[in-house]
């Protein structure tokens, strides 16, 4: 039988709903009979798929769905949802590190603000510890850049600051950078970026940045923080 194309939909063993593999996590059976997460989808052997959300993985463990799907006795650890999250976090930080090595990451408040003003920034990262004032000022720089390019029309600095308008920035105009806040702790960003106390970072356009955004979005979706967001949809 010919293998399924990479774009073929798979069915979640919990919901039975078919969807593209980007929205699921694959699991295989290890040599010892333990359920093994395969977040890259390339481990050998029969695999089953679960919707990429922590609560769905927990439900698969609770319902013993892995044994049914794998058609074998499968030992699913109670902390399997946490194991998957740790792997997704590791993948995201590794891809962020690769973006840094490719010269596509700028860190520091002043440097990030300057990079946004020059253009070419596809995403801005704020650590979990970032102060509201720093996030607000970088957000103003993003909006100034969008106004200068004609991507944002009819908004003022005052209206941009209101809570009612803040949600709009979760889905920025096509030409604007994605603002990603609170997904990583500062210590995690330090580890990936080789710095100390990294609070703000900007990613410049490039293949490594696109790879990072895919990994970061997968982590956010798994945690339930951005279930419908494709952070790379506007990148060329």
List the helices and strands and how they pair.
Elements: E1 10-11, E2 18-19, E3 24-29, E4 35-38, E5 47-51, H1 54-62, H2 65-70, H3 80-101, E6 105-107, H4 109-118, E7 121-126, H5 132-148, H6 157-160, H7 163-166, E8 178-181, H8 186-193, E9 200-204, H9 207-223
Parallel strand pairs: 7-8
Antiparallel strand pairs: 1-2, 3-4, 3-5, 6-9, 7-9
Helix pairs in contact: 1-3, 3-8, 3-9, 4-5
State the gist of this model.
The chain has helices spanning 54-62, 65-70, 80-101, 109-118, 132-148, 157-160, 163-166, 186-193, 207-223; strands at residues 10-11, 18-19, 24-29, 35-38, 47-51, 105-107, 121-126, 178-181, 200-204. The protein has 236 residues and is an alpha+beta fold. It has 2 domains: 10-78, YlxR-like (Hypothetical Cytosolic Protein, Chain: A, 2-Layer Sandwich); 85-223, 60s Ribosomal Protein L30, Chain: A (2-Layer Sandwich), CATH 3.30.1330.
Walkthrough of the structure:
- The protein is α+β, with helices and mostly antiparallel strands.
- It is 41% helix and 16% strand.
- Helix 1 (54-62) runs antiparallel to helix 3 (80-101).
- It starts with 9 loop residues before the first strand and ends in a 13-residue tail after the last helix.
Key descriptive features of the protein:
single chain, 236 residues, alpha+beta, Hypothetical Cytosolic Protein, Chain: A, 60s Ribosomal Protein L30, Chain: A, 2 domains, four-stranded mixed sheet, three-stranded antiparallel sheet, 9 helices, 9 strands, 41% helix, 16% strand, elongated, disordered N terminus
């Amino acid at each position: 039988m010919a293998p399924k194309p990479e774009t073929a939909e798979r069915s979640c063993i919990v919901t039975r709903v078919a969807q593209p593999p980007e929205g699921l996590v694959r699991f295989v059976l290890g040599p010892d009979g333990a359920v093994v997460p395969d977040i890259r989808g390339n481990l050998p052997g029969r695999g089953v798929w679960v919707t990429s959300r922590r609560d769905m993985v927990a439900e698969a463990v609770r319902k013993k769905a892995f044994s049914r799907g794998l058609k074998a006795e499968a030992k699913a650890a109670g902390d399997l949802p946490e194991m998957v999250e740790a792997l997704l976090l590791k993948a995201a930080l590794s891809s962020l590190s690769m973006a840094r090595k490719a010269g596509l990451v700028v860190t520091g408040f002043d440097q990030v603000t300057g990079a946004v003003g020059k253009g070419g920034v596809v995403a801005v990262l704020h650590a979990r510890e970032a102060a509201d004032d720093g996030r607000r000022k970088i957000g103003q720089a993003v909006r100034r850049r969008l106004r200068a390019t004609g991507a944002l029309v009819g908004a003022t600095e005052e209206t941009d600051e209101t809570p009612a308008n803040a949600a709009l920035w979760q889905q920025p105009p096509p030409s604007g950078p994605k603002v990603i806040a609170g997904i990583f702790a500062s210590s995690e960003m330090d580890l990936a970026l080789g710095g100390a106390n990294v609070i703000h970072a900007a990613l410049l356009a490039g293949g490594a940045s696109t790879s990072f955004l895919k990994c970061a979005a997968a982590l956010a979706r798994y945690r339930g923080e951005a279930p419908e967001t494709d952070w790379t949809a506007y990148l060329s």
